[in-house]
Amino acid sequence: MTTTEFCGKCGSERMEADDLYCRGCGNTFAGEAGVRASTLDTIQANTDRTGWSKTNAASITSAVILCTSGFFSLVGAILPWANAPFGVSKTGIEGDGMFTLIAGLMIVALAAALVFRGDRASRRWIFSALSMLLSGFILFVAVIDIRDANGIIAGSHNLIKLGPGIYLTTVSGSLGIVGALVGFASGRPWDGRILMKTAVGALVLLGLASFGWVAGTAVVDYRGTTNSMASPTNTSGPNTSVPAKLAEGRVTDVADLGRGHFAGAFVGHQMTPFCESVPSSASAKHKIVGGGGAPNTAASSVSCYNSNPPSSGKHLNVQRSVDVGGGNIINIPADPDVYPDDVEIPRDAIPHILEHAGVFVGWNCETGDTACAGAAQKLKYLVNNRIDNHDNRVVMAHDNDLPEGTFGLASWTRVLDFPFADWDQEKALADQFISTNSCRFDPEGFCP
User: Fold this and answer.
1) pLDDT tens digits, residue range 191-211?
2) Domain housing 32
3) Are 85 and 2 in a shared domain?
């Protein structure tokens, strides 16, 4: 009959008859004076009381994993959690990452306690349980922020790209849970091979679960097609309806006024007015004669443009080398480019840009408004990037028709406008507007 002996201090089972010390807490087993200690027993006697021994490998392994988890949490909190186009980013510590950073520091402290104060099984269980709770909290915060990525940067309009910080934080939480599980195992003197298999198995399972969760999350990048500005089918006919639910109501879906050309040249052409309800500058209230001349305020039966900038309707026909004022020579419709500040694209030429699969970008700043001019310069950088790096068909120019302090973007039947002061909130949407609408409407086949 075999008698099982347990440690009087921590309750762990005496695994081998010649064990001089408890493998759980290092306590000396009673009545062993006559047993000859082997070399391994001597090493055990010198090390078990401090916890640094082969027999207490679970505690050491748990502490190492938890320290790694805490380190990943600290680094993850400092790195970006989300990025939006053109340099907009947010690090973890600017949001929920501050909480995960604190939790990571606490996990490191608990790992140290496991090594230096974990001489009793009850303490190791407590330290492991606290580590489990903190690691679960880190993982929970990371997963919630991944699934609600657009909430990380306000006004991002579904243009978020997740940064490395939030992924590292997810790994941190997963590792912490594994470390805590190994810490629970240290309450019993498990065989090292079983311990290793348990740790590896738990790590693999948690890794697969985390990857599946993240992979299944709908995260939209800058040029993704899951956003609310999906392109409708192209069509070549007039009076085309382009229904769309556009991002948060910021982009206006404008009724189609049809296509068609005005007869005659730009010089002497009487510009089409804006409809009464359309916001515009004071100078735009007059019907301007193309190529110069006095304003004509007489009543007219001429139809009006229903958006500013114009987004459909009759327009000037194709003309080459046209002087639009100040000696500035351009083509009508204007070729894709960012034009100098003193070049004005004729109002009635803008719909022709859109008919050629383009996007028009206009800006109008009050004289001397350096803040507005600075925002306009940033808008120019954005447009140049879309032209140079993405082959988008974009024409950008100063537009006196816009209300002062306003930026306006137009494609066929779609308009986005906002005050320059909202540039930081709206620049991502402006970038998406160009990306989505360049070549969206291409009745004449200008796009590949």
Assistant:
1) 455 555 556 655 665 665 555
2) 1-50
3) no
